[in-house]
């Protein structure tokens, strides 16, 4: 019997989203709670296949060495920096990747806009005040005429630009390799990094995390931002220096932040961010939709079936 573990199935919906029964002789077990450390090793010790939800669980060389039965890691998404591919290759473990829904990138941009709108329109503070009998505690802020700074102008960044332009915002962009031509194709103006952080009323991050982009937003960038400006991150937490951001928010150096990604996930309730009044926090919802998860799991099952049959599944890039 092939034993399959599904990790990070927080909503306990994975088993209903794909035809796991189509995998002959397979036993499928879903884990709702995030597992770490020895608990993770103990939970996975008797499984041949692990279904990894994007980069929620890290598969280091050390962890892989503690799972001698493991033969396949079936990841959702086509890229997963949390899996040590070299260690998997040495251990003879196949690693596959699965596409999500066609609108998977658009929904990440939608989450970024939800955060931006919540910050500008003071949604959370106003909701709480209204339920407590306090009327109009804060002034809302307009979007039209303001400057949106995009750090990254790939698929998600271009979607952000189109929506920002529809709101009447002036859109500028920077990334390490952005050219004037690519910026012009998106109808935005390319600026240097310092100008973006110094002039944008709202900065939204849309870069792939890599050694080149790690902590691309650090103390210097936050210090350059205007005191009313907002920072939004729906990409990867590692793009931002955690300590520098918490300090900037705690002392009111920037207007606030909308975050969908965190340095530790799930985010502990004791984290300093949870006590700050100028943040809007969502639990990494940028990809969590019925359509996207269904597509992920259907394609994961397809990859596992191909692997079981000796075929050629979609390998992780």
Show the helix and strand layout.
Layout: E1 2-6, H1 14-17, E2 26-30, H2 37-44, E3 49-52, H3 61-65, E4 72-76, H4 85-91, E5 94-98, H5 104-120, H6 123-131, E6 147-151, H7 155-166, E7 170-174, H8 180-185, E8 189-190, H9 193-199, E9 202-205, H10 219-224, E10 230-233, H11 242-250, E11 256-259, E12 279-281, H12 290-308
Parallel strand pairs: 1-2, 1-3, 3-4, 4-5, 6-7, 6-9, 7-8, 9-10, 10-11, 11-12
Q: Which labels suit this protein?
A:
single chain; 317 residues; alpha/beta; Rossmann fold; 2 domains; 5-stranded parallel β-sheet; 12 helices
CATH superfamily of the largest domain: NAD(P)-binding Rossmann-like Domain
Strand order of the largest sheet: 8-7-6-9-10-11-12
Sheet with most strands: 7 strands, parallel
SS elements, strand count: 12
Strand content: 15-25%
In whole angstroms, the N-to-C terminal distance is 29 Å
CATH C-level of the largest domain: Alpha Beta
Question: How do you describe this structure in short?
Answer:
This protein is α/β, with parallel strands linked by helices. It folds into two domains: 120 residues, NAD(P)-binding Rossmann-like Domain (Rossmann fold, 3-Layer(aba) Sandwich), CATH 3.40.50.720; 178 residues, Rossmann fold (3-Layer(aba) Sandwich), CATH 3.40.50.720.
């Amino acid at each position: 019997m092939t034993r399959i573990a599904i990790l990070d199935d927080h909503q306990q919906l994975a088993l209903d989203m794909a035809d796991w029964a189509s995998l002959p002789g397979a036993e499928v077990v879903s884990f709702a709670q995030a597992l770490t450390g020895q608990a993770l090793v103990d939970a996975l010790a008797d499984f041949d296949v692990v279904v990894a939800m994007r980069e929620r669980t890290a598969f280091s060389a050390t962890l892989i060495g503690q799972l001698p039965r493991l033969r396949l890691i079936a990841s959702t998404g086509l890229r997963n920096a949390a899996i040590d591919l070299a260690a998997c290759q040495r251990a003879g473990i196949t690693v596959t990747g699965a596409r999500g829904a066609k609108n998977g990138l658009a929904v990440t941009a939608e989450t970024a806009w939800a955060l931006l709108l919540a910050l500008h329109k003071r949604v959370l503070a106003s909701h709480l005040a209204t339920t407590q009998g306090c009327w109009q505690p804060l002034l809302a802020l307009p979007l039209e005429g303001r400057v949106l700074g995009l750090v990254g102008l790939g698929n998600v960044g271009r979607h952000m630009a189109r929506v920002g332009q529809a709101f009447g915002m002036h859109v500028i962009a920077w990334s390490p390799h952005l050219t004037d031509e690519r910026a012009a194709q998106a109808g935005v103006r390319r600026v240097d990094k310092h100008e973006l952080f110094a002039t944008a009323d709202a900065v939204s991050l849309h870069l792939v995390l890599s050694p080149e982009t790690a902590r691309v937003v650090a103390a210097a960038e936050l210090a350059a931002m205007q005191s009313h400006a907002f920072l939004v991150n729906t990409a990867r937490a590692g793009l931002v220096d955690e300590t520098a951001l918490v300090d900037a928010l705690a002392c009111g150096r920037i207007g606030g932040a909308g975050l969908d990604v965190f340095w530790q996930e799930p985010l502990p309730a004791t984290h300093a961010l949870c006590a700050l009044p100028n943040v809007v926090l969502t639990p990494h919802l940028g990809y969590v939709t019925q359509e996207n998860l269904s597509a992920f799991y259907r394609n994961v099952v397809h990859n596992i079936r191909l692997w079981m049959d000796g075929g050629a599944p979609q390998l992780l890039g």
